[in-house]
Design brief:
heterodimer, A: 712 residues, alpha/beta, Rossmann fold, 4 domains, seven-stranded mixed beta sheet, five-stranded mixed beta sheet, 24 helices, 17% strand, globular, B: 527 residues, Pyruvate-ferredoxin Oxidoreductase, domain 3, two-stranded antiparallel ribbon, 9 strands, elongated, disordered N terminus
Chain lengths: 712, 527
């Protein structure tokens, strides 16, 4: 875990009764696990739940004190499978990953777990990555709860509610013998706030103790005829128990007094709904609302009696359910229809069918609802708005899009530069990409990579082309994806099917896109994890014959030659190039303080940075199309003879070397230079340098004296 | 609960107006999270209930990122805050980059009834802007115009430069600007206390905070770029040459006013490139063009610019000369922040192709080598690897110095002959249009802009230049020829692959020549 240290956060986890926790939602959740006597935790990192994993990874001492087992799972399926410990043992377990992608991977284990049923509370914490800032396909995790029949909590987005949901979830899971999924949206994970702490609790039965008293019961095995019994048990016992639990514990909340209209919303939508009502003058600062709100902190299952109770006496009800399909709205419609209730149900239509429910979407949706259901409640300004908005210049054609990209000094940039150069030589190739930072290579300026089918599935996505042809198919995979699922699903698949394709493994020493977590092949020592298992060895181990390891991705000419060889060699079978250099974000976090200290201690340190000779740069921007580095920008020179801005490197340059390598490999232009400031040089070095610069200075002056010099 | 029984339109809860809503638009890596943390701590310390959220995810990796805060005086109950900004409902918008300010305005988060917009005027270019072979930089002025209209209060300055000057990051200067704006009801000391409580890099952050505070008070005027250097900069050199220079400069100044300014800049460039005789040659050519031009002298003015650029082609000698000048070392030392007397190593990345090397040879020899692909291959083999020269070392410097010393023989090189031929053909083409269509002649002159770069980039530029001239030849007789010439040139600068240019040429062909198989031209390609 090189990117960040979580010492301060770990201190927060140690807080006890009487203390107040202040911080982010995801950390509050982590603390709540400890307060609820969790016995084991697992998961796979990814926004927005990475912090839960990172903090626990740094909290080994605390976890050991409490007898809690923590695993950084190989992938989400492994994490979900870990919950098997709660099938026979009364131990609370929690796993976490991002939705919907993590749930996709985990669904095999989740389905089996749901069939078996659980004894100890089993909690799946899903960071729902839907809407702004998301990096994945837009889908809902909700469907998984419905198909596998486990319960789904969606608490209001404030820390006390999120923390309460953890306790409720464990208890509900135990009361109903069913796993519970706790869904937190990306903004809820990052929302800050406070909650009163309780003491951490040691699990009544630890996993270590359970190992001493093993249990088994074939009734829990998913085989016929037990699996048929599980299916009946789900609907005849577990579901009714869940409904009873929701009612008894009042997990869903109602706000506001009775009336002819009402709003039913997911817990996570509550603050947005209240803000819309506040702006319409129908709720106060504390959320006390004049329009009754039925807040579903449990979005699956829905409790018919409670729904009907809320709708009783109402003429219009608005359902606020983010995303599609509209599972909740459709279930509510069926419930009301079966009960013969004639309340008018509103929802999708007034609100967008798909996409994030932004403040604007909710304001418009609620306003539209009230305009139909109770227009008299709307303020005059809303009923007859004054339409004299200022006419602003249209910026939609001015403001450029700014998708994520490679960081300054990223070791993946030269890999894509080399690939682009190879494509210039050998023509465009079929390229499949994976998940991770390297996927940014499919965006301009490189545009290397045409599809992504999932984590660890990049090479598998080229399966149809494995037979080969005039040009070899290329696939990309990161070290994170390689260990997540890639070795088995992609590499062995290629070996077994005698693929002719090329795989480029982009190895930056970490699962970098998710925050720099260690993986099997990480180079760092890790006290609690086994690292330093080379990817190239693993690949050879499953039978790949043509394997090349390059330990300096910035060597563009070498990389280009290797790629060229891989694409033209006569050797049959899959070709694998493992291109390794450390993630620059993590490297800088580690190296910068170390360098500063070395300089302070008087040791010799070279600080490299690149620059561009403004007069030599012609402003053709060929270098930009092989870089896209944030520190490499453009600026106008102020020279009236020049039309186009020239390249410029700012002070954020880390001197990675890509600019020089690319200028060399692509035969670009001689504008780039590297300046190394030498701290604490040796005596001989200093003297020789002084001697050289005296002669150089003399030569330069000699020439200047014979010509005209123009200076600004 | 204070809920009214009847559902009648209410005035709403007055306390809702006390909720302060702040949004921060930043580019990943600018420290938006740190700034958010400070504001939150500040609010809590000042007796406010506060809530922050962010959408980080992979957008940390240089993408656009958003942070959002709400705060209100704390009471016994916690207010219900929103987790995201709403259009028309933001009190303070902080944009850590100029186009991010544009994005915030575009999304309706800056409105004249309430929003204080604090924006840094510096640019952090998007990849799409940098890739364009021509000038793809977004229109900063359009954002200023929109900001002036959209914001209730507008506070702008180059907060990035202020941060760099104080050795800190922009989050600290923006925090200073927020304090200076008075948009939050807290004293300056409370802001500084929040930085101290943060405990990391406190001194640098406080210095940057002050710099941001002052920059915000001074406004953009304080950080506007210095006026452009006058083309008649200081000239120094041996007295004899100075005298000749003054005579040449006098000749340049005597040109009509619109031409003189550009001609002096051009004269300086060509003299710097070669010698005074070259300067005289430049002026003679220009005067010949002037003789055929008439007021407002647009043709001559454009020729003054592009002729100078054409005459100062980028050959090995020029690069070696520029890289061995004494002034350059001082400039680089200053840019790199080298301390007085600190040792600095300087590595140049040079990779000439066979073409550049052959161009450097005397014309007959160079032509002989170039004429045979086999000889060129052999020459290329010698230069197959890029050269890394240390110009801070004697050996590296002397090699480049010697190359630069070839300047007096430059006129004899193959490259010079090629450049002269190309330049003459271009001028002849342009002036050929002068009698029938003067504005088309100007456009052809401007096409020289397409020729730039080194190696492959230069070859591509030249072929693009030829393609545009071909296209112009097709439309030369038409009334809208000037328009088409301009469009062709602009298209050629749009993308590396030349897709836009090809589209434009196809469009021209569709109406100039009868369509081959009923294909209709689509002028919309160009608009």
């Amino acid at each position: 875990m090189a990117e960040r240290s979580f010492k301060a956060e770990v201190a927060d986890l140690r807080k006890g009764a009487g203390e107040v926790f202040t911080g982010e939602g995801i950390l509050a959740l982590t603390k709540a696990l400890l307060e609820n006597g969790v016995g084991y935790v697992g998961g796979y990192q990814g926004a927005p739940i990475s912090h839960l994993m990172d903090v626990l990874a740094d909290a080994q001492d605390l976890l050991a004190d409490l007898g809690i087992r923590f695993e950084a799972s190989a992938n989400e399926a492994a994490a979900a499978a870990m919950l098997a410990a709660s099938v026979h043992y009364p131990i609370r377990g929690a796993v976490t990953f991002k939705g919907a992608v993590g749930v996709n991977v985990a669904s095999d284990a989740l389905a089996n777990l749901s069939s078996s049923g659980v004894t100890g509370g089993a909690l799946v914490i899903v960071g729902e990555d839907y809407g702004e800032g998301s990096s994945i396909m837009q889908e809902r995790s909700h469907a998984f709860a419905m198909k596998s029949q486990f319960w789904l909590l969606d608490p209001r987005p404030n820390l006390p509610s999120i923390v309460k949901a953890v306790g409720d979830g464990f208890e509900m899971s135990e009361a109903t013998n069913t796993p519970v999924m706790l869904m937190v949206r990306i903004r809820s994970c990052h929302v800050t706030g406070q909650f009163p702490c309780r003491d951490n609790r040691r699990p009544p039965l630890t996993v270590r103790e359970a190992l001493s008293n093993p249990r088994s019961d074939f009734a829990r095995i998913v085989l016929p005829p037990m699996s048929f019994a599980h299916e009946q048990d789900k609907v005849k016992t577990r579901w009714p128990n869940a409904e009873r639990f929701i009612l008894e514990r009042k997990l869903n909340e109602q706000f506001g007094a009775g009336g002819r209209i009402g709003i039913i919303c997911q817990g996570g939508m509550f603050n947005g709904v209240i803000r819309a009502l506040q702006r319409l003058g129908l709720a106060d600062i504390h959320g006390d609302t004049e329009v009754p709100v039925y807040c579903l902190n449990v979005t699956y299952p829905l409790v018919a009696t409670e729904v009907l109770g809320f709708c009783q006496g109402k003429d219009h009800v608005l359902v606020v359910e983010e995303g599609q399909p509209a599972f909740i709205e459709d279930q509510l419609a069926a419930m009301l229809y079966r009960a013969g209730v004639t309340v008018k149900l509103h929802g999708k239509g007034l609100l967008p069918m798909a996409g994030e429910y932004t403040g604007q979407a909710l304001l418009e949706g609620v306003t539209g609802f009230l305009r139909q259901a109770a227009p008299e409640t709307l303020p005059a300004t809303v009923r007859a708005p004054n339409l004299d908005k200022p006419r602003l210049p249209d910026l939609s054609r001015v403001v450029p899009i700014r998708p994520p990209g490679f960081c300054t000094g990223c070791p993946e940039r030269p890999i894509f530069a080399a690939l682009k150069l190879v494509e210039q030589d050998l023509g465009k190739h079929q390229i499949a990409a994976d998940i991770g930072c390297h996927l940014f290579g499919s965006l301009p300026p490189f545009e290397i990579g045409g599809a992504t089918m999932g984590y660890g599935l990049g090479p598998a996505a080229n399966g149809a082309f494995d037979g080969g042809g005039e040009r070899r198919p290329i696939s990309l995979i990161g070290d994170g994806g390689f260990w997540h699922n890639g070795l088995s699903s992609s590499i062995t698949n290629m070996v077994f099917n005698k693929s002719d394709g090329l795989v480029v493994v982009v190895d930056n020493y970490y699962s970098a896109a998710t925050g720099g977590q260690d993986v099997m092949s990480s180079r760092a020592d890790n006290a609690s994890k086994a690292t330093q298992h080379p990817i190239s060895e693993a690949v050879k181990g499953v039978g790949v014959k043509w394997v090349r390891q390059i330990d300096n991705t910035y060597d563009v000419p070498r990389l280009r030659a290797l790629l060229h060889e891989a694409l033209t060699t006569k050797q049959p079978g899959p070709k694998v190039i493992v291109a390794s250099s450390e993630c620059m974000l993590n490297k800088q976090r580690r190296e910068r303080p170390r360098k500063a200290q070395a300089i302070a201690e008087g040791r010799r340190v070279e600080a490299p940075r690149f620059g561009v000779d403004e007069a030599v740069c012609t402003g053709d921007h060929a270098c930009m199309r092989l870089s896209g580095c944030p520190s490499l920008g453009l600026r106008h020179t102020g020279d009236p003879l020049r039309d186009d801005p020239v390249a410029h490197i700012d002070q954020t340059c880390v001197g990675c070397g890509n600019c020089g390598e690319v200028a060399d490999a692509a035969v670009l232009c001689p504008s780039f230079y590297r300046a190394d400031l030498v701290h604490n040089p040796g005596k001989l070095e200093t003297r020789w340098s002084a001697f050289s610069s005296r002669i150089i200075g003399w030569l330069a002056r000699r020439r200047d004296a014979r010509r005209l010099t123009f200076s600004a | 609960m204070s809920v009214r029984k009847s559902l009648a339109p209410g005035d709403g809860d007055a306390r809702i107006a006390t909720i302060l809503k702040l949004a921060i638009y930043a580019v990943g890596g600018q420290g938006g999270g740190v700034l958010t943390g400070w504001i939150e701590d500040l609010a809590r310390a000042q007796g406010y209930a506060a809530q922050a959220t962010s959408v980080a995810g992979v957008s940390q990796r240089t993408g656009a990122t958003i942070y959002y805060l709400e705060m209100a005086p704390a009471g016994t109950r916690t207010p219900v805050f929103s987790l995201m900004p709403s259009a028309g409902d933001v009190d303070v918008m902080i944009a850590a980059e100029w186009m991010e300010a544009g994005r915030a305005i575009l999304r309706g988060f800056v409105t004249p009834d309430r929003t204080t917009l604090i924006a840094s005027t510096h640019r952090n270019l998007a990849v799409s802007e940098k890739m364009v072979p021509g000038d793809g930089l977004a229109d900063a002025e359009a954002v200023r115009e929109a900001a002036t209209q959209a914001a209730k209060r507008l506070i702008t300055a180059d907060f990035e430069a202020a941060a760099v000057r104080t050795g800190s990051v922009i989050s600290a200067t923006l925090f200073g600007a927020l304090a200076a704006s008075g948009a939050l009801p807290f004293p300056r000391s409370a802001f500084e206390a929040a930085i101290r409580a943060g405990g990391k890099g406190v001194e640098a952050s406080l210095a940057a905070f002050s710099a941001g505070f002052e920059a915000a008070e001074k406004g953009p005027g304080a950080t506007v770029a210095p006026p452009l250097p006058s083309p008649e900069a200081r000239v120094s050199g041996p007295p004899g040459k100075l005298q000749k220079w003054n005579r040449l400069a006098e000749r340049g100044r005597a040109l009509p006013a619109p031409v003189a300014e550009m001609a002096l800049a051009g004269l300086q460039k060509v003299v710097d490139f070669q010698d005074l005789r070259y300067g005289a040659e430049y002026l003679s050519r220009l005067e010949a063009i002037l003789a055929r031009d008439r007021a407002p002298w647009e043709l001559t003015r454009e020729a003054a610019k592009y002729l100078a650029n054409a005459m100062c082609y980028d050959d090995v000698i020029r690069v070696a000369d520029l890289k061995t000048r004494g002034l350059r070392f001082q400039q680089i030392r200053a840019e790199m922040g080298a301390a007085e007397g600190q040792l600095m190593q300087l590595t140049e990345f040079l990779h000439p192709r066979a073409e550049e090397v052959a161009g450097l040879l005397p014309r007959p020899l160079g032509a002989w080598v170039s004429a045979s692909p086999q000889r060129m291959r052999r020459l290329g083999w010698f230069f197959r690897r890029g050269k890394r020269l240390r110009t801070d070392s004697l050996w590296g410097y002397v090699r480049l110095y010697a190359l630069a010393g070839l300047k007096p023989w430059r006129r004899l090189t193959l490259r010079h002959a090629q450049e002269v031929a190309h330049r003459d053909a271009w001028l002849a083409t342009a002036l050929g249009h002068l009698d029938s269509n003067p504005s088309l002649a100007v456009e052809v002159i401007r096409c020289r802009r397409l020729v730039k770069g080194y190696s492959d980039t230069l070859s591509r530029g030249l072929s693009r230049f030829d393609r545009v001239l071909e296209g112009i030849a097709l439309v030369a007789g038409r009334d809208d020829a000037t328009d088409w010439a301009r469009r062709l040139r602009e298209a050629a600068l749009k993308d590396e692959a030349g897709t836009a240019l090809e589209g434009a040429v196809q469009t021209i062909r569709s109406f100039v020549q009868p369509p081959a198989s009923g294909q209709a031209g689509s002028p919309s390609v160009m608009s």
